[in-house]
C-alpha cells in the first residue's frame, strides 16, 4: 500500500514495546523502527555512528537506544550520540496511522538509499 | 417540539409556518451535536431553525459520565446535559429514537429510519463513534455487549443483579471503568488486555503497574498479554477462551477494546472520508453545506476520542456558522481515569531520555508516582498516579508552553509548593520543615531524629540508614535525607556515598536491591523501580538486565523473563559480531563430539555459506557469519542432529572443558570426561551474574586448565580437588582450593551449591574471581564446606531453579517462537511496499 509520500511498512503491533524491527531498503541500508515504553515510534538508519553496529539490536530505554556493540547511547529523536560520545545517525520521519507504521518516502530514500 | 413516536407527514412538519430562516439539521443528539448548537445559540440564537435527529430514546446526556452511573455514584438524571425544556425554550425540534439512514446531498435532504425526511440548508453530522467489536467467534451471543451508551449500562446493571462472572475485554480507560463498575456491583470481574501493560497509550510502565496492583487489590483479576480466541456459549455467553487455551467463565462479556469513528452515513453520501470524515479548520466537509464535528471527524490527520477537543471544535464550528470564522487548530489532550479512589492523570508525551528530561517523584508508602517530562524548559507531558491534584496545572503549563526554568526544582512538588514563594531552594524548603515533620514514612522517622542522628556522627547516607533507619526501606526519602545531611553538616558533607549504586537510575547498590527484592516479594521490573524510587521511567541498559537477572534468580519458575531487558546476544541466542552477523556455537557435552554432529556442523557451514568455523578455547566449534534471518533455520538443522544451544553468548554456564582422563590417558586418575559431561548436564541453561566456565582435569598435570576456571575439578587418586574463582581473562587469577571430596556425586553437589551461592550473592556482571576477592574465600568455605545443611539447601535451590531453565532456546526459536526477532518488519521499495506481516 502506498499513501502519498508515506509508505506503509507494517503494523505497529509487530514492533515489541521497548524493542525494534528492521526494514530493508532496496539497494540501500536497513532502517530500524523503534517503539518506546511510552508507545512512540522512531525511525533511524540501522547503523551506529561509532562502528556501524545494528542499533535495532540494542536495549531501548526512555527515548534512547544503547548500541549492542559498544554501548554508545543514541537519541532516538535526533540520532545524536548522547553523553561524552560524538556522532549522528540519520533519522527518518515516521508516523503511525490506524495502527500502521508509515515511513516518509523521500527522507527514507535520502537517508538510506 | 418533540416528534418522538409521532407519525408526522414528511416535510410538512419540516417547515412550520413557512419559517424563512435557513434550516440546520443535526444528525446526532450526543455531546458534540448539542454542544455545537449551544455554541451557536450563544452567538446568534435566532439565525438558524434547528432540527436534531438522535438514535437513542433520550435527551442529550454526558456520555463520559456513564461510568459513574454504572458504579452507582450517579443516576441517569444527574448526567443529563440538556433536558426537554432546553430544546423547547430554544425552539429546537428533537427527533429521538430515529437515526438518520441516508443523506441526499443533491436534493439537500436526509431520511431517517422511520421514513421521515427533512430538507436542510446546512447539515451537521455528529454521529460520534461506534464501539469496535473484535471479530471472534461468539461475538454475537446474547450477553456480549459494548460500553457506549445508556442501553449498555442498563444491560450491565441487569446482569449484575444476577451476579456471577464478568469478563471485560480491553484494559484501556473504558474497559477499566466498566470493570470497576461491575466489580462494585458485585460481579467477579476479569479484565483481559492484549498488551503487556494497562492503558499503555496513556500510562508508562510504572504507573500501569501501580494501577494494576490497585485493581487487583480490589479483587479484580487482570490478565495482560491475553489474546481472545473466541467467546463460547450455547444460547448465551458462557465464557471467553484465550489463544493460549485458557477458558475464563463469564455470564457477561463487555467489549471495550476501542472505538471507531461512525462514518458509514457520510461515506455513502460520497463525502471525503479518510480515517474519519475529513473537515477543514471550520469543520466543513468536502461539501460546503455539510459540516461535521466530534469523534466522527478527521482534522489535519488527527482523530480524537476524548471530550476536550470536541469543545474546541464546536467553538470553531459555531464561529463559522455565524460568519465570523476563527478556525480550529487541533487539540492537546489529557486523560483522567474515573475510578473512585484511584487517581490517574496523563497528558502529552511521556517518554524519557533523548532530548527530553524527566522529573520523577515516587512515594511508595503513599502509592504516589509523578512524572513530568520537560524539553527546552517546557513541559511536554505528565503522568500522575495516586496524587493527581496538580494534573490540571501541569496540563495548563504544557498547553501554554510556559518556561518552567524558574520553578524547575520544585515543579514536581506541585503548584502550591512551586508557587509558594520564598522557597526557591529545595534545601531551604527542607530546612524550613518543623522538627516533628515526618521524613521517612516507612520507618516513621522525623526530621528531628534524622538531624540528631547526623549530629551524633552519622555523616553519610549509609550511616543515617544504619543508625535511625531513615531512607533504609523504600528509599523514596533519600533525597530529603541527603538534603538534611547537607543542611546539617554544611561544608563537611562530602555528598559521596560509600556504596556504589547499581547505575545512575537509583541510589541503591546491588546488594540493597537484591535483598529488598526478596524481602518485599517484588516480582517485576516496574515494581522494583517504583518501590525503590528509580529516577528514570524505564531504567537504562545497565539496570534493566541486572534487575531481570535478579528477579529471575529470586523467583525461579515464576518470574517471566523480559526479552527487552536482555543484551542482544541473550535475546538472539547467538553472539553478535562486528559486522552485525552472528556466530553460533552448538553444545558439545564435555567437549566430546561424533561424526553425526560434525557432519551437521559441516553441512550448516556450507549451506549458509559461513565464512569461518573455528575451535574455541572451551573445546567447541564456532560457526561465524550467520545472518539473523538464517538463525532459526541453522538451529533447526543443528537440532536435527541432536545438538542444542551452547550458551556461548550468555551470562550463564558456558562450557565444561575436559581432558580424556582415566578412560584413555596413561596418567589419568579418574573419569574426567564422564564427570565433565555430568557437570554440564547438571548446570547448562542456568542464568548467572556473569559467564561461568568449568573444567575437569584427570590428573594434577591439569591439561584442561581447571585452575583458571570459575569452578575447576582436578582429579587425584584419592578423589577430587575442587577449585573456585579462577579467571583467564584481562586479569589472570588462579583458583583457590575450596576443598577435596571423595566421590563424583559430592563433586556435583558442591559444584551446584557453589554456583547457587554465586547466583544469589554476586553482583550482576561480577565474575567469580572479583566476587571471591570481595567476599573472601573463608566466607565461601563457611557456606559450602563447613555448613552442611546450608550447602544441601543451596544445592536443592539450584536444582529447583534448573528444573525451569533446561529448555533448549534454539528448539523453541526453530519451532517459530519469537519469529519477529529474526524477520524484517516489512520491505521498503521506492514505488511500492509489501508488508511482511
Question: Gist?
Answer:
The complex is a heterodimer of chains A (113) and B (837). Chain A contains one helix and eleven strands, in the order βββββββββββα. Chain A has 113 residues and is mostly beta strands.
List keywords for this structure.
heterodimer; A: 113 residues; mainly beta; Rieske Iron-sulfur Protein; four-stranded antiparallel sheet; 7% helix; globular; B: 837 residues; alpha/beta; FAD/NAD(P)-binding domain; Enolase-like, domain 1; 6 domains; five-stranded parallel sheet; 38 strands; elongated; disordered N terminus
Break the fold down into its secondary structure elements and pairings:
The complex is a heterodimer of chains A (113) and B (837).
Chain A: E1 2-3, E2 6-11, E3 19-23, E4 31-35, E5 41-45, E6 59-61, E7 64-66, E8 73-75, E9 91-92, E10 94-97, E11 100-104, H1 105-112
Antiparallel strand pairs in A: 1-2, 2-11, 3-4, 4-5, 5-9, 6-7, 7-8, 10-11
Chain B: E1 23-27, H1 31-44, E2 49-53, E3 60-61, H2 66-70, E4 80-82, H3 84-89, E5 92-95, E6 100-104, E7 109-112, E8 117-119, E9 122-125, E10 129-131, E11 144-146, H4 150-162, E12 165-169, H5 173-184, E13 188-193, H6 205-217, E14 221-224, E15 228-232, E16 239-242, E17 247-249, E18 252-255, E19 259-261, H7 264-268, E20 277-279, E21 290-292, E22 297-299, H8 307-321, E23 334-336, E24 344-348, E25 357-363, E26 368-375, E27 378-385, H9 391-400, H10 415-418, H11 426-431, E28 438-440, E29 445-446, H12 447-455, H13 461-468, H14 478-489, H15 510-519, H16 525-531, H17 543-554, H18 568-572, E30 575-576, E31 582-584, H19 595-607, E32 612-615, E33 621-626, H20 631-640, E34 653-658, H21 672-683, E35 692-697, E36 711-716, E37 719-724, E38 736-741, H22 744-761, H23 768-775, H24 777-786, H25 788-805, H26 809-814
Parallel strand pairs in B: 1-2, 1-9, 2-5, 9-21, 11-18, 12-13, 12-18, 13-14, 20-22, 34-35, 35-36
Antiparallel strand pairs in B: 3-4, 6-7, 7-8, 10-19, 15-16, 16-17, 23-24, 24-27, 25-26, 26-27, 28-29, 30-31, 31-33, 32-33, 36-37, 37-38
Amino acid at each position: 500500500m502506498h499513501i502519498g509520500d508515506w509508505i506503509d511498512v507494517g503494523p505497529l503491533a509487530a514492533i515489541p514495546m521497548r524493542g525494534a524491527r528492521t526494514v530493508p531498503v532496496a539497494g540501500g541500508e536497513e532502517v530500524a523502527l523503534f517503539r518506546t515504553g511510552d508507545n512512540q515510534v522512531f525511525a533511524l538508519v540501522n547503523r551506529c555512528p561509532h562502528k556501524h553496529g545494528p542499533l535495532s539490536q540494542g536495549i531501548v530505554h526512555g527515548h534512547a537506544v544503547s548500541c549492542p556493540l559498544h554501548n554508545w547511547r543514541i537519541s532516538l529523536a535526533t540520532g545524536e550520540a548522547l553523553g561524552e560520545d560524538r556522532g549522528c545517525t540519520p533519522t527518518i520521519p515516521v508516523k503511525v496511522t490506524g495502527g500502521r507504521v508509515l515511513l516518509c518516502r523521500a527522507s527514507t530514500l535520502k537517508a538510506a538509499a | 417540539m418533540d416528534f418522538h413516536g409521532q407519525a408526522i407527514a414528511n416535510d410538512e412538519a419540516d417547515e412550520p409556518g413557512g419559517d424563512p430562516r435557513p434550516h440546520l439539521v443535526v444528525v446526532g443528539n450526543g455531546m458534540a451535536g448539542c454542544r455545537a448548537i449551544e455554541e451557536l445559540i450563544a452567538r446568534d440564537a435566532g439565525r438558524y431553525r434547528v432540527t436534531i435527529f438522535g438514535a437513542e430514546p433520550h435527551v442529550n446526556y454526558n456520555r463520559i459520565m456513564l461510568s459513574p452511573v454504572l458504579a452507582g455514584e450517579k443516576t441517569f438524571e444527574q448526567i443529563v446535559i440538556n433536558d426537554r425544556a432546553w430544546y423547547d425554550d430554544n425552539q429546537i425540534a428533537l427527533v429521538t429514537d430515529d437515526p438518520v439512514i441516508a443523506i441526499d446531498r443533491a436534493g439537500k435532504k436526509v431520511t431517517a429510519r422511520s421514513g421521515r425526511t427533512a430538507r436542510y440548508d446546512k447539515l451537521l453530522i455528529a454521529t460520534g463513534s461506534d464501539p469496535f467489536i473484535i471479530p471472534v467467534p461468539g461475538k454475537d451471543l446474547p450477553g456480549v455487549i459494548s460500553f457506549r451508551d445508556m442501553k449498555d449500562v442498563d444491560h450491565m446493571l441487569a446482569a449484575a443483579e444476577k451476579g456471577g462472572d464478568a469478563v471485560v475485554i480491553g484494559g484501556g480507560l473504558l474497559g477499566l471503568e466498566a470493570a470497576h463498575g461491575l466489580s462494585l456491583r458485585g460481579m467477579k470481574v476479569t479484565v483481559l488486555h492484549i498488551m503487556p501493560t494497562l492503558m499503555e497509550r496513556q500510562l508508562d510502565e510504572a504507573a500501569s503497574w501501580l494501577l494494576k496492583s490497585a485493581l487487583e487489590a480490589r479483587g479484580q483479576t487482570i490478565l495482560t498479554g491475553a489474546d481472545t480466541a473466541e467467546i463460547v456459549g450455547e444460547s448465551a455467553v458462557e465464557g471467553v477462551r484465550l489463544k493460549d487455551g485458557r477458558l475464563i467463565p463469564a455470564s457477561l462479556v463487555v467489549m471495550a477494546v476501542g472505538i471507531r469513528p461512525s462514518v458509514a452515513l457520510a461515506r455513502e453520501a460520497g463525502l471525503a472520508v479518510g480515517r474519519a470524515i475529513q473537515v477543514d479548520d471550520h469543520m466543513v466537509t468536502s461539501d460546503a453545506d455539510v459540516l461535521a464535528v466530534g469523534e466522527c471527524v478527521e482534522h489535519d490527520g488527527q482523530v480524537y476520542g476524548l471530550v476536550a477537543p470536541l469543545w474546541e471544535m464546536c467553538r470553531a464550528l459555531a464561529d463559522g456558522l455565524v460568519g465570523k470564522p476563527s478556525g480550529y487548530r487541533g487539540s492537546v489532550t489529557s486523560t483522567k481515569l474515573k475510578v473512585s479512589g484511584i487517581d490517574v492523570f496523563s497528558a502529552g508525551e511521556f517518554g524519557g531520555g533523548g532530548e527530553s528530561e524527566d522529573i520523577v517523584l515516587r512515594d511508595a508508602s503513599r502509592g504516589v508516582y509523578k512524572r513530568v517530562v520537560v524539553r527546552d524548559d517546557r513541559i511536554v507531558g505528565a503522568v500522575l498516579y495516586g496524587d493527581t491534584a496538580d494534573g490540571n496545572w501541569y496540563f495548563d503549563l504544557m498547553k501554554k508552553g510556559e518556561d518552567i526554568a524558574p520553578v524547575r526544582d520544585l515543579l514536581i512538588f506541585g503548584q502550591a509548593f512551586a508557587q509558594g514563594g520564598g522557597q526557591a531552594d529545595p534545601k531551604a524548603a527542607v530546612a524550613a520543615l518543623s522538627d516533628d515533620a515526618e521524613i521517612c514514612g516507612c520507618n516513621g522517622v522525623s526530621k528531628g531524629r534524622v538531624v540528631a542522628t547526623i549530629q551524633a556522627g552519622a555523616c553519610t547516607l549509609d550511616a543515617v540508614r544504619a543508625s535511625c533507619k531513615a531512607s533504609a526501606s523504600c528509599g523514596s526519602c533519600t533525597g530529603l535525607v541527603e538534603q538534611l545531611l547537607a543542611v546539617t553538616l554544611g561544608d563537611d558533607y562530602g555528598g559521596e556515598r560509600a556504596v556504589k549504586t547499581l547505575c545512575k537510575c537509583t541510589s541503591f547498590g546491588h546488594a540493597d536491591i537484591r535483598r529488598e527484592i526478596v524481602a518485599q516479594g517484588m516480582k517485576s521490573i516496574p515494581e522494583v523501580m517504583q518501590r525503590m524510587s528509580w529516577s528514570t521511567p524505564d531504567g537504562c541498559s545497565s539496570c534493566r538486565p541486572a534487575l531481570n537477572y535478579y528477579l529471575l534468580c529470586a523467583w525461579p519458575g515464576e518470574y517471566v523473563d523480559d526479552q527487552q531487558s536482555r543484551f542482544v546476544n541473550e535475546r538472539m541466542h547467538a553472539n553478535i559480531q562486528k559486522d552485525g552477523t552472528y556466530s553460533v556455537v552448538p553444545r558439545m557435552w564435555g567437549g566430546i563430539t561424533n561424526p553425526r554432529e560434525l557432519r551437521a556442523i559441516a553441512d550448516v557451514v556450507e549451506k549458509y555459506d559461513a565464512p569461518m568455523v573455528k575451535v574455541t578455547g572451551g573445546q567447541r566449534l564456532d560457526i561465524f557469519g550467520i545472518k539473523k534471518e538464517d538463525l532459526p533455520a541453522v538451529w533447526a538443522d543443528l537440532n536435527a542432529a541432536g545438538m542444542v544451544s551452547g550458551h556461548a553468548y550468555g551470562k550463564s554456564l558456558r562450557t565444561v572443558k575436559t581432558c580424556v582422563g582415566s578412560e584413555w590417558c596413561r596418567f589419568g586418575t579418574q573419569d574426567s570426561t564422564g564427570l565433565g559431561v555430568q557437570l554440564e548436564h547438571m548446570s547448562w541453561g542456568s542464568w548467572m551474574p556473569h559467564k561461568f566456565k568449568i573444567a575437569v582435569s584427570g590428573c594434577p598435570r591439569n591439561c584442561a586448565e581447571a585452575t583458571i576456571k570459575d569452578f575447576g575439578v582436578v582429579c587425584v587418586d584419592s578423589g577430587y580437588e575442587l577449585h573456585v574463582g579462577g579467571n583467564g581473562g584481562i586479569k589472570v587469577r588462579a583458583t583457590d582450593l575450596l576443598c577435596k571430596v571423595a566421590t563424583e556425586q559430592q563433586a556435583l553437589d558442591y559444584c551446584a551449591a557453589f554456583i547457587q551461592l554465586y547466583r544469589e550473592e554476586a553482583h550482576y556482571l561480577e565474575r567469580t574471581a572479583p566476587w571471591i576477592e570481595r567476599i573472601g574465600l573463608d566466607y565461601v568455605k563457611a557456606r559450602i564446606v563447613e555448613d552442611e545443611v546450608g550447602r544441601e539447601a543451596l544445592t536443592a535451590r539450584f536444582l529447583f531453579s534448573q528444573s525451569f531453565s533446561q529448555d533448549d532456546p534454539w528448539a523453541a526459536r526453530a519451532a517459530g517462537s519469537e519469529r519477529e526477532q529474526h524477520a524484517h518488519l516489512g520491505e521498503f521499495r521506492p514505488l511500492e511496499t509489501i508488508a511482511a506481516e
